[in-house]
Write a structure and sequence with these properties.
By secondary structure, this protein is an alpha+beta fold. It has 5 domains: 97 residues, Alpha-Beta Complex (DNA Primase, Chain A), CATH 3.90.580.10; 127 residues, DNA primase, catalytic core, N-terminal domain (DNA primase DNAg catalytic core, N-terminal domain); 123 residues, Dna Topoisomerase Vi A Subunit, Chain: A, domain 2 (3-Layer(aba) Sandwich), CATH 3.40.1360; 62 residues, Pheromone ER-1 (Up-down Bundle); 154 residues, DNAb Helicase, Chain A. The protein is 50% helix and 10% strand. It is built from 26 helices and 16 strands. α13 crosses α16. The two termini are 52 Å apart.
């Protein structure tokens, strides 16, 4: 088909790209054995990491939800790209020039790449406009908040001119159509035609984890602007405000690097800038929406399952700030990390705190943080008169559900004591109230639980549940399982002749034999990407089993020992086959006269088989 990317280029781009680098921008990966990395799965919600990446094979697999594939699959799943767009993105990343069949143009794609390109062009336009004489109000706004030209450049801050179509004209001049700019949320369609969405405002580019611009936030500057104080890009194909965190592209490296991991959640773009410039470089903010479940899932992938990690929220100590803290608390209960709240003296936000008291005051704000649960309990208790019995009972009923939501039993018990002291009540009373709240939560989650009859588990065909863990523990199966794992992960280091001979031998376990057959179809592990290709070709329902074998932890101290172990496993398969052949030959000889031509031929075969068996034993 004309316009298709040449297969050689597709393979070359994949070979030059480290899959761990790409996935590592979205998921915190840690070592999980020789040649394997592990993190929290980006495709489903989990608390313990089951997402494995094997960089050498260019392959990933989640042992929890079963998602697996190569780097192109990952990008297509995560960013909803077409295959062509995934290849083009990676090629652009490494500076590789793609070639298309017949020299034709690239085929039609989903259009997402054009939206990314349009946003990137808009960001460059806004940055350039900030330096023009018309942007005095924008520069004054930034200067009054302590941000110089260097700070603006670091965060990509720009200026949208007041005119009706300044950006529209500039981007159409670069080849973007009005429909593309509307789809990107950069322009709006009105009765008077198409016009710039952002006009007379300071702009901040909102980027994803990889640094690609998805949309913009813009702050009003002029009194005659009747629009909202802050205006964001509307929901588009690539921009979903509930799934982005401003500043995370800049903060992610330091979040993963500091110990314990710490994320500071602030309320606005200027607060993020102030924190970073003051040295709190792990600050992020939501984009025109409250902190929610999707934001929590993003942070979970960055932080991982580190129970010592910290998420610190900075809120105003007013009623709105308290409500924000309560909402954040509800959403962070699924995090393994510890949650805190930091409130600045006088209720100043980080930007104003930096202006009034300097960078040190912003850094010190983190030292004044209070545990989220303690903060929420204080807010609940503060609404009641604790000098009366009715007030204490009301406070207990209000605060008990907060403690009931704590997963850790030990921490929950300590907060029961904290609440008891605050209320001047017996610990037994507090504990009873917390237990009632826990039962109420369970009933709310499943109000018909007690009345519902127990239903038998649905019958599922056994082959549909085949995983490494479900395989039988017989000696033959363990040998075949470990050998396949060694072949997929270290086949390129095994002697080629030994590899071909051992992989050609039938296996006893049907599921493992299905994996073996796919490998044996093209037994050339020296070719880049061979293992991932072999797994992709495994017939269903055994493909997930092959993915587990490719990405699972191979028991060895280092690559050298892993290679040696894989070689030994291959020899054990040959030995098993030779011993079976020896038994069959001995049985045949017992049924045949040794002096006949057939008997003599069997004797020769038996001697050759025994000699081969002894040679393999001596090599081990």
């Amino acid at each position: 088909m004309a316009g298709r990317i040449r297969q050689a280029d597709v393979d070359e781009v994949k070979a030059r790209t480290n899959i761990a680098d790409i996935i590592g921008e979205r998921v915190q990966l840690k070592s999980a054995g020789v040649g394997s990395l592990k993190g929290l799965c980006p495709f489903h919600d989990e608390r313990s990491p089951s997402f494995n990446v094997r960089p050498q094979a260019g392959f990933y697999h989640c042992f929890g939800c079963g998602e697996s594939g190569d780097i192109y699959t990952f990008l297509r799943q995560m960013d909803h790209l077409s295959f062509t767009e995934a290849v083009e993105r990676l090629a652009a990343r490494i500076g590789f020039s793609l070639h298309y069949e017949d020299g034709a143009a690239a085929p039609e794609t989903s259009g997402r790449s054009r939206l990314y390109a349009a946003n990137a062009a808009a960001a460059e336009f806004f940055r350039a406009q900030l330096a023009t004489p018309d942007a005095d109000a924008g520069r004054q706004f930034l200067g009054e908040r302590g941000f110089d030209a260097g700070a603006a450049a670091h965060f990509g801050v720009g200026y949208a001119p007041k005119g009706w179509s300044g950006m529209l004209d500039a981007l159409t001049g670069k080849g973007f159509t009005k429909d593309e700019l509307i789809a990107a949320g950069l322009v709006s369609q009105g009765q008077r035609g198409v016009y710039d969405r952002f006009r007379g405002r300071v702009t901040w580019p909102i980027r994803d984890l990889t640094g690609q611009v998805l949309g913009f936030g813009a702050r009003r500057l002029y009194d005659d602007d009747k629009g909202p104080k802050y205006l964001n890009t509307p929901e588009t194909t690539i921009y979903h405000k509930a799934q982005v965190l401003y500043g995370l592209d800049l903060a992610k490296r330091d979040i993963a690097r500091v110990t314990p991991h710490r994320v500071v959640v602030v309320e606005g773009y200027t607060d993020v800038m102030a924190c970073h410039l003051a040295g709190v470089t792990t600050a992020i903010a939501t984009c025109g929406t409250s902190f929610g479940a999707d934001h929590m899932n993003i942070l979970r992938r960055i932080i991982g399952d580190d129970a010592s990690a910290e998420v610190v929220f900075t809120f105003d100590p007013d009623a709105a700030g308290q409500k924000a803290a309560v909402r954040a608390f509800a959403e962070t209960k699924g995090l393994s990390a510890q949650s805190f709240v930091a409130v600045a003296p006088g209720g100043l936000d980080p930007c104003d705190l930096r202006l009034e008291r300097g960078d040190g005051a912003v850094r010190s704000l983190m030292d004044s943080k209070a545990p989220m649960f303690e903060f929420i309990i204080d807010q609940r208790v503060a609404n009641f008169d604790l000098g009366t019995v009715e007030g204490r009972v009301g406070a207990l009923r209000s605060a008990a559900p907060v403690i009931a939501g704590i997963r850790d039993q030990t921490i929950r018990g300590q907060y029961e004591r904290v609440l008891s002291r605050r209320l001047g009540m017996e610990i037994s009373e507090t504990r009873s109230a917390v237990m009632r709240a826990m039962r109420d939560d369970a009933a709310d989650a499943n109000p018909r639980q007690e009345r519902r009859p127990v239903e038998p588990e649905p019958t599922v065909a056994p082959e549909l549940r085949v995983t490494v863990a479900s395989l039988p523990r017989t000696a033959d199966t363990v040998l075949e399982r470990d050998a396949l794992m060694g072949f997929l992960q270290y086949g390129h280091r095994i002697d080629p002749d030994l590899f071909r001979r051992s992989i050609a031998l039938p296996f006893h376990n049907p599921a493992l034999d299905a994996v073996r057959q796919s490998i044996a179809t093209d037994p050339d592990p020296s070719r880049p990407g061979w293992a991932a290709t072999a797994v992709s070709a495994i017939r269903e329902p055994y493909r997930s089993l092959g993915a587990e074998l490719l990405t699972g932890s191979f028991p060895a101290r280092d690559d050298e020992h892993a290679t040696r172990s894989a070689q030994d496993l291959a020899k054990q398969l040959l030995l098993r086959a030779l011993e079976a052949e020896k038994r069959n030959l001995n049985s045949a000889l017992q049924r045949t006269s040794a002096n006949t031509p057939e008997g003599r031929a069997l004797s020769v075969q038996l001697r050759e088989t025994e000699a081969e068996r002894r040679r393999l034993l001596e090599e081990q």
